[in-house]
Specification:
Length: 165
Protein backbone atom coordinates (compact mmCIF):
# COMPACT_ATOMS: atom_id res chain seq x y z
CA UNK A 1 0.00 0.00 0.00
CA UNK A 2 2.55 2.80 0.04
CA UNK A 3 2.51 5.88 -2.06
CA UNK A 4 -0.03 4.72 -4.60
CA UNK A 5 -2.84 4.54 -2.09
CA UNK A 6 -4.83 7.78 -2.39
CA UNK A 7 -6.42 7.31 1.01
CA UNK A 8 -3.08 7.18 2.77
CA UNK A 9 -2.32 9.98 5.22
CA UNK A 10 1.20 10.11 3.87
CA UNK A 11 -0.13 11.62 0.64
CA UNK A 12 -1.66 14.65 2.39
CA UNK A 13 -0.15 18.04 1.62
CA UNK A 14 -0.21 21.25 3.67
CA UNK A 15 -3.24 23.52 3.20
CA UNK A 16 -2.52 26.24 0.66
CA UNK A 17 -3.67 29.58 2.01
CA UNK A 18 -5.01 31.98 -0.63
CA UNK A 19 -3.17 35.29 -1.17
CA UNK A 20 -4.32 38.55 0.38
CA UNK A 21 -7.42 40.17 -1.15
CA UNK A 22 -6.63 43.04 -3.45
CA UNK A 23 -8.79 46.10 -3.76
CA UNK A 24 -7.77 46.86 -7.28
CA UNK A 25 -9.01 46.21 -9.85
CA UNK A 26 -12.56 46.14 -8.52
CA UNK A 27 -15.20 43.77 -9.73
CA UNK A 28 -17.07 44.91 -12.88
CA UNK A 29 -20.18 45.82 -10.88
CA UNK A 30 -18.23 48.48 -9.00
CA UNK A 31 -17.44 50.26 -12.27
CA UNK A 32 -21.18 50.56 -12.89
CA UNK A 33 -21.77 51.87 -9.35
CA UNK A 34 -18.98 54.44 -9.70
CA UNK A 35 -20.34 55.57 -13.08
CA UNK A 36 -23.85 56.00 -11.64
CA UNK A 37 -22.59 57.97 -8.65
CA UNK A 38 -20.51 60.25 -10.87
CA UNK A 39 -23.42 60.78 -13.26
CA UNK A 40 -25.75 61.63 -10.36
CA UNK A 41 -23.18 64.06 -8.90
CA UNK A 42 -22.79 65.77 -12.28
CA UNK A 43 -26.55 66.12 -12.69
CA UNK A 44 -26.90 67.59 -9.19
CA UNK A 45 -24.03 70.02 -9.80
CA UNK A 46 -25.47 71.07 -13.17
CA UNK A 47 -28.93 71.71 -11.71
CA UNK A 48 -27.49 73.59 -8.74
CA UNK A 49 -25.42 75.79 -11.01
CA UNK A 50 -28.41 76.52 -13.25
CA UNK A 51 -30.55 77.36 -10.19
CA UNK A 52 -27.86 79.67 -8.86
CA UNK A 53 -27.63 81.44 -12.24
CA UNK A 54 -31.42 81.76 -12.47
CA UNK A 55 -31.57 83.32 -8.98
CA UNK A 56 -28.47 85.50 -9.14
CA UNK A 57 -30.63 88.59 -9.75
CA UNK A 58 -32.48 87.85 -6.49
CA UNK A 59 -29.30 88.05 -4.42
CA UNK A 60 -28.21 91.24 -6.15
CA UNK A 61 -31.62 92.80 -5.56
CA UNK A 62 -31.59 91.83 -1.88
CA UNK A 63 -28.13 93.38 -1.46
CA UNK A 64 -29.35 96.59 -3.14
CA UNK A 65 -32.41 96.61 -0.89
CA UNK A 66 -30.16 96.29 2.17
CA UNK A 67 -28.25 99.37 0.98
CA UNK A 68 -31.51 101.27 0.49
CA UNK A 69 -32.67 100.27 3.96
CA UNK A 70 -29.33 101.21 5.51
CA UNK A 71 -29.24 104.63 3.85
CA UNK A 72 -32.77 105.39 5.06
CA UNK A 73 -33.13 108.55 2.97
CA UNK A 74 -36.14 109.34 0.82
CA UNK A 75 -33.97 109.55 -2.28
CA UNK A 76 -32.66 106.05 -1.75
CA UNK A 77 -36.12 104.79 -0.83
CA UNK A 78 -37.38 105.96 -4.22
CA UNK A 79 -35.20 103.24 -5.77
CA UNK A 80 -37.40 100.50 -4.27
CA UNK A 81 -40.09 100.57 -7.00
CA UNK A 82 -37.39 100.51 -9.69
CA UNK A 83 -35.66 97.63 -7.91
CA UNK A 84 -38.91 95.63 -7.88
CA UNK A 85 -39.52 96.20 -11.57
CA UNK A 86 -35.93 95.29 -12.48
CA UNK A 87 -36.10 92.09 -10.46
CA UNK A 88 -39.40 91.14 -12.11
CA UNK A 89 -37.95 91.88 -15.55
CA UNK A 90 -35.00 89.62 -14.75
CA UNK A 91 -37.29 86.68 -14.02
CA UNK A 92 -40.24 87.13 -16.39
CA UNK A 93 -40.44 87.94 -20.08
CA UNK A 94 -40.47 91.66 -20.79
CA UNK A 95 -43.91 91.45 -22.43
CA UNK A 96 -45.42 89.99 -19.27
CA UNK A 97 -44.07 92.60 -16.83
CA UNK A 98 -42.94 95.86 -18.43
CA UNK A 99 -46.40 97.29 -19.08
CA UNK A 100 -47.90 96.48 -15.68
CA UNK A 101 -48.89 99.48 -13.56
CA UNK A 102 -51.23 100.23 -10.70
CA UNK A 103 -53.61 97.48 -9.61
CA UNK A 104 -52.37 95.09 -12.31
CA UNK A 105 -48.79 95.48 -11.04
CA UNK A 106 -49.90 94.96 -7.43
CA UNK A 107 -51.90 91.85 -8.41
CA UNK A 108 -48.88 90.48 -10.30
CA UNK A 109 -46.62 91.03 -7.28
CA UNK A 110 -49.10 89.33 -4.94
CA UNK A 111 -49.77 86.37 -7.23
CA UNK A 112 -46.10 85.72 -7.95
CA UNK A 113 -45.24 85.64 -4.23
CA UNK A 114 -48.52 84.13 -3.00
CA UNK A 115 -49.31 87.03 -0.73
CA UNK A 116 -51.76 89.93 -0.48
CA UNK A 117 -49.41 92.64 0.80
CA UNK A 118 -49.38 94.77 -2.32
CA UNK A 119 -53.12 94.73 -3.04
CA UNK A 120 -53.86 95.46 0.62
CA UNK A 121 -51.69 98.52 1.11
CA UNK A 122 -48.03 98.14 0.19
CA UNK A 123 -48.91 98.71 -3.46
CA UNK A 124 -50.38 102.13 -2.65
CA UNK A 125 -47.21 103.03 -0.77
CA UNK A 126 -45.20 101.84 -3.76
CA UNK A 127 -47.24 104.03 -6.12
CA UNK A 128 -47.04 107.06 -3.84
CA UNK A 129 -43.29 106.70 -3.73
CA UNK A 130 -42.87 106.01 -7.45
CA UNK A 131 -45.18 108.69 -8.81
CA UNK A 132 -44.85 111.49 -6.28
CA UNK A 133 -43.34 114.65 -7.70
CA UNK A 134 -42.63 116.14 -4.29
CA UNK A 135 -39.03 116.39 -3.30
CA UNK A 136 -39.87 116.13 0.41
CA UNK A 137 -40.76 113.11 2.48
CA UNK A 138 -43.62 111.15 0.89
CA UNK A 139 -43.82 108.25 3.34
CA UNK A 140 -43.57 108.15 7.11
CA UNK A 141 -40.89 106.03 8.72
CA UNK A 142 -43.45 103.33 9.53
CA UNK A 143 -44.73 103.32 5.96
CA UNK A 144 -41.19 103.18 4.60
CA UNK A 145 -40.35 100.23 6.85
CA UNK A 146 -43.57 98.42 5.85
CA UNK A 147 -42.86 98.99 2.17
CA UNK A 148 -39.26 97.78 2.44
CA UNK A 149 -40.44 94.71 4.35
CA UNK A 150 -42.97 93.95 1.59
CA UNK A 151 -40.33 94.40 -1.12
CA UNK A 152 -37.91 92.14 0.76
CA UNK A 153 -40.60 89.50 1.25
CA UNK A 154 -41.43 89.59 -2.47
CA UNK A 155 -37.78 89.30 -3.49
CA UNK A 156 -37.36 86.25 -1.27
CA UNK A 157 -40.65 84.47 -1.99
CA UNK A 158 -41.62 85.13 -5.60
CA UNK A 159 -41.56 82.22 -8.00
CA UNK A 160 -40.93 82.93 -11.65
CA UNK A 161 -41.91 80.53 -14.41
CA UNK A 162 -39.72 77.44 -14.21
CA UNK A 163 -38.86 78.01 -10.53
CA UNK A 164 -41.03 75.37 -8.94
CA UNK A 165 -38.69 74.89 -5.97
Amino acid sequence: MGDTDTASLQNLHDIIVPGAETWWPPAPGWYAVIALVLAAALVILWKSWRQWRRNRYRGEALRKLAKIRQAGTEGDLREAPVLLKRAALSAWPREAVAGLVGADWHRFLDESAQTDLFCSGAGDLLDRLAYSSRSGRVLSEQESAALLDAVQMWLKRHRAPGQGD
